[in-house]
Amino acid sequence: MHHQYCEICGKHFDRAEKLEEHREEAHYPCKPCRWVFDSALSLHEHNCQRHYYCPDCRLLFQSESNLRSHRHSRTHIIASILCPGKGCAKEFINSAALVFHWESGTCPSRITRQHLNRVITEFDKNHVITNPARMIAGGSDSQTTMWATSRAWNGHAFECFLCHREHRTPESLNQHFASPAHAQKQFVCPRAYSGCGAEFKTLSALCQHVESERCGVRRFKKQVQDFIGDLTSGMKRLGI
User: Fold this and answer.
1) What is the pTM of this model?
2) In the chain, which end has fewer C-beta atoms inside a 10 angstrom radius, N or C?
3) Same domain, 104 and 206
4) DSSP conformation class of 55
């Protein structure tokens, strides 16, 4: 009879499932490689060398970007960036999270994405991260306010006349209009610093791009953080 054999301890099993259970319980298997180790330390060292692996949490990830996102999450970073909005005491782990908080319209200060974009226009006078042709002063989409009326009803749903996406309620369609779904790409990853030039609809998306270090923007990261810091200080002065 064919037996399944554990090369670590020499035990035989009559089914592959039993052998797999044994390896999980008694030894230290690496599932992606299908290797088995005789100690947790050996497996740990293997993962450090061969996989996208967080040595602190001892977790494997499918890609470098997933590992990077994990390392930049609340698991490893203390929320220390305080929202300067009136009546808001929330803290965030990075600039992207703070900016998304503002853009979402959930801050007690009632700041909105449109309001934030106006403030950015005032601060980024040299257009380091903004496209002047698409910002508010140049005819941005943020000047136009859309809302759902009875005419949006197509017989079975409330329909966006721009993308024809359907919504069950007018409130849901209004949230769609208020989102950056149809916004222009007003923000840019500066080619002068990164050689990238990627464009984004929101400042939070640009901040996420910078913090993800997906391009040569790593050298620019400090400047972006300084810019957000100046913006935060400016919002305090404006009493937002």
Assistant:
1) 0.58
2) N
3) yes
4) T
Distance between CA 204 and CA 80 in Å, rounded? Answer: 17
Domains contained in the chain, number: 2
State pLDDT tens for residues 10-36. 788 888 888 888 877 778 888 899 888
Are both 36 and 90 inside the same structural domain? no
Expressed in percent and rounded to 5, the helix, strand and coil fractions of the chain are 45, 10, 40
Domain housing 31? 4-71
Cβ atoms within 10 Å of 7's Cβ, excluding its own: 10
Q: Could you give the CA distance from residue 38 to residue 190 in angstroms, rounded to a whole number?
A: 50
Which residues neighbour 238 within 8 Å (Cβ) at sequence distance 6 or greater? 119
Dihedral over alpha carbons 168, 171, 177, 180 (to 10 degrees): -90
In a domain, residue 111? The reply is yes
- What is the spatial distance between Cα 193 and Cα 97, in angstroms, rounded to a whole number? 23
Collect all residues with Cβ–Cβ distance below 8 Å to 57 and sequence separation of at least 6: 70, 75
The verdict on 56 and 133 lying in the same domain is no
| pLDDT, tens only, 35-91 | 888 788 899 999 999 999 999 999 999 998 889 888 888 888 888 888 888 889 899
Question: Do 163 and 173 form a contact (C-beta atoms < 8 A)?
Answer: no
Q: Which residues pair with residue 52 across a beta bridge?
A: 61
CA distance 22 to 14: 12
